[in-house]
Design goal:
It is a single chain. By secondary structure, this protein is mainly beta. It folds into four domains: 105 residues, no CATH class; 118 residues, Jelly Rolls, CATH 2.60.120; 113 residues, Jelly Rolls (Sandwich); 32 residues. The longest helix is centred in the C-terminal third of the chain and has 27 residues. The protein is elongated and about 125 Å long. It starts with a helix and ends with a helix.
Length: 406
């Protein structure tokens, strides 16, 4: 058993990892470095997705014959939150206004306060002031937020107060008439860190087709390009709507769903506005898309644009004074490079965009040498040898039989 393990390890040591070489890439593009003295990046576009490996592992940057290290970064958005329950103090009513204090506790910095309000169908203004000396001295005004619940209209709700980054130990909240003290059930203080995602247009959509109770849109998108969301543009004059959206592919499989909405309501002089016009795609589609907007008994939406989107992928690199580099891709046997630049990658906020030239066939392309075993590369010779061997054995057998008969 030990000998078998040693033989296995020895055999594995001879398994070679495919190396990158310019004659092995099918495609080439120029990378025009806009600012050679700083970090640059280019965006992976449809041309690259079409001819590169699906995981982009075969992208290689060259300065002449020398490799240029890079880091591949997907521009996903994200939210990280530090939050904790806050203590409500002095909850009561003054001249018809619900007022109370919040003891923030140990959280050192925050920019959101979420209230738990046991009420439906309301609109109130919440004013916030901060202080470090509870019940003493002046307070600092931190602004106001509109809280609402539109359960009756099925248009959603909001109980979040947005503040500038703050560190006050105590907050004083004053609500406009509409919420009673006993309806305030709790509060959570949080510090929200949000990163906006970057998006790239993918394919195109035909004009919407109006059907009874629904709007149907068909879209094309390149099969090899990832798809992450559908963005709708609705005429500005159309407000106060919420529609359920379904996305299916050419095989009828659901690959996305969600709802789009726009709220603009004025209640007693208080204007509430919110908008969400994007639907996520959660599975890889096969073929074209069919998007259905369920209008129910409502008028159809005036859709001015429907655009499939992909999360933007960027390739960051240090040009080290070079003004032109070459991007090679189109080698399915390559695995992703292992660069120190990627391991210790640090995004430079002043990174410059490097335009890409048009995609072209690599004139130096010769393809990889055939690394299959000899028997796989010459099956005809192998079969011929086997047939000759069978024929020879047959002749020997016949001769032996004749001798035995004599």
């Amino acid at each position: 058993m030990k000998c078998a393990s040693i033989v296995f390890l020895v055999l594995c040591s001879f398994v070679s990892v495919p190396e990158a070489a310019i004659p092995y890439f099918t495609n080439i593009r120029d990378v025009q470095v806009s600012q050679p003295d700083r970090q640059n990046y280019f965006v992976v576009d449809e041309e690259i997705w079409t001819h590169a490996r699906p995981d982009l592992a075969d992208l290689r940057l060259y300065d002449g014959q020398a490799h240029v290290q890079y880091a591949l970064s997907a521009q996903y958005g994200g939210v990280s939150t530090e939050q904790q329950e806050a203590k409500i103090l002095n909850l009561g009513s003054t001249a018809g206004h619900t007022e109370f204090d919040i003891d923030v506790g140990a959280i050192t910095e925050y920019d959101r306060v979420s209230l738990r309000i046991d009420a439906k169908d309301f609109v109130v203004i919440a004013s916030v002031a901060g202080t470090n000396a509870f019940g003493q001295g002046p307070t600092t005004e931190l602004g106001s937020s509109t809280l609402y619940d539109f359960t009756r209209e099925a248009l959603g709700s909001n109980s979040m107060l947005k503040l500038p980054p703050s560190s006050f130990r105590y907050l004083h909240i004053k609500l406009s008439p509409g919420i009673r003290p006993q309806q305030v059930k709790g509060a959570t203080v949080s510090n929200l860190h949000e990163k906006q995602a970057g998006w790239t247009n993918v394919g195109s959509c035909a004009p919407p087709e109006q059907k009874p109770r629904s709007t149907v849109i068909t879209c094309d998108h390149p099969d090899k390009v990832p798809l992450n969301r559908i963005l709708f543009q609705v005429a500005p004059a159309q407000v106060n709507f919420r529609r359920i959206v379904s996305v299916v592919d050419a095989k009828g499989s659901q690959v996305g769903s969600g709802d789009i909405s726009r709220v603009r309501i004025d209640r007693a002089g208080m204007l509430v506005t919110s908008e969400d016009l994007a639907v996520s795609v959660f599975a890889k589609p096969t073929g074209g898309l069919t998007i259905t907007v369920d209008n129910g008994d409502n008028p159809s939406l005036h859709l001015t644009s429907v655009q499939p989107l992909s999360v933007e992928r960027r390739v960051y690199f240090d040009p080290q004074g070079k003004t032109t580099l070459k991007l090679y891709y189109g080698d399915n046997k390559l695995s992703a490079p292992v660069y120190d630049y990627a391991k210790f990658f640090h995004l430079d906020e002043s990174a410059a965009s490097a335009p890409l030239g048009p995609g072209a066939h690599n004139d130096a392309y010769a393809g990889r040498p055939d690394e299959r075993p000899w028997s796989d590369r010459h099956p005809a010779v192998l079969w011929a040898a086997m047939l000759l061997a069978v024929a020879a054995l047959t002749a020997v057998a016949i001769r032996g039989l004749k001798q035995a008969t004599d």
